[in-house]
Each structure stands twice: as structure tokens, then as C-alpha cells.
Amino acid sequence: MLFLGALEQGLIYGLMALGVYLSFRVLSFPDLSVDGTFPLGAAVAGILVFRGFDPILAVLGALGAGLLAGAFTGVLATRLRIPGLLAGVLTMIMLYSLNLRIMGRPNLPLLGRPTAFLRLSQVFAIPRGWEALSIGGLFALGLALLLFLFLKTELGGAMRATGDNPQMVQAYGMSPESLTTLGISISNGLVALSGALASQYSGFADVGMGVGTIIAGLASVIVGEILFRPRGIAWHLLAVLGGSVVYRLAISLALRYGATLGFTASDLRLVTALVVLLALAAPALRSALRGETG
To answer: Which H or E element spans position 162?
Structure first.
């Protein structure tokens, strides 16, 4: 059950990791606004479901809200020339108040409400108990495929080039500012979609559920790259999803068996930071054990 739960959460939060991969790895843009767009997706989807809307439409509404929030961050950074880090922080701060206004309260319970998992499992005749795993996998793999196909197009190739050499992109007559804004918009759309599914999976939407989203996303990306050593775009995207599952499993194991070390559920952020620290330090530690220098 521990592994099954980690697999379900890893796939659901894997959408968020794909968004972080797009902004940090593809665009080289340090987007901290994801800490606000993750609960934005949960808030929009949660309030729509709470008011009787179909949960699938609620998820799509969350996706649209995330796209708009990401576009706002992109405009701040590219058109108003605000540094990327500061643009993300400003968006994140504004979204905190916006999320409170959307939900009307800090926490919105969704237990007993219909979910996209239940709706889609009925459509695909998925056995009871496997809804979250099957539908989470469908969303994660389906959107990873769509992102792969997009990045292989001419527009997607120009976006990848923008992260490496924006001057070259401009020399070819394309706008790196517009490409960056588009990429950040897509990134935050994926993050908000993940937040919407996470709220329906957990049974609540909370204004503080986005704290540490960027760390979790980076951890998934880094762990996936270290463990799977991907080559090519498709393998990178799959490695991100695999890293998300491994990261969630590591967190679950640390919290379950870390009692002997004094860890409790309230230490989740500490455990998260330690996992990221180990992932970042792994290459240096491996070289040190081999006696390599450099």
C-alpha cells in the first residue's frame, strides 16, 4: 500500500514536475510562481466542484487559470523587465490572496464530492480501487506525450533554443520574450492542473498546500536525472515522472520509518529538503568515493 500510494502521488505530482522541468531545464527560467499556481489550481477546481460543476470541467478551469497566471509572470519578466526570480515571487504573493478570495476560506473540504478520477474511471470501466493510479497515469503519460510532441515542433524547438541562446533565436526573426512567456504559461498550466488533481485526490483544497512546490518539483527533476541518466527529450520527460514517483516514495518511507530518528509528519519540509540535498550532493559524493578530483 505504501508503494501504491507513492506511485499514485508520484504520477499526480509528476505533472507539476513536468512544469518545473519546462521552466528550469528547457527555458532556464527560475520560476518561483509555481508555489502559488499549484494551490491556484486546487482552489479553482475545488470551488467549482464545491458549487456543483462537473469535476472534469473543474480541472480544465484550473488548467486555464494556471495558463493565465504563468502568462502574467512571463509578461512581468519579459515585457516589464522585472528579474525572473522577483517576477515569480510577486506572482506567488498575489496568488496567495487571490486563492483565499476564490475559496472564501483557507481550507475547502471536498470529501464526498465527485472527482475526475471517479468520472473518468466510469468512462474507461476501471476497477474500483485503481481509479487514482489509472487516471493519474493517463494524465501524466498523456501530457508528457503532448509536451514531447510540442517540443519537437518548430515552435517547440525555438522555445528550447531560447533557453540556450536567446540571441540566436532573435537573429532568426523570432521573439525570445514571447517564447519565454508561452513556455512559462504552459509550465504553470501543468502545475495548476496537478494542483487540481491533488486536491481531488486528497479531498481538500488548502491555501497553503503550495508551500515547497518548487523544491518538490526540482527534487523530482534532479532525482530522475541522477537515477535514469536520460538521453533525448522523451527520456527526460519519462525520467521526470520516474523521479517524481521515487521522490514521493522516499518521502513516504522517511516519514513512516523515520520515527526512530525523531521525524514526525510536521517534519515534512525538513525531510523534503534533506532528500533534495542528497540528490544534489550525490554526484560529488560519488566522485569523492571514487577518489576523483575536479
So the answer is: helix 154-164
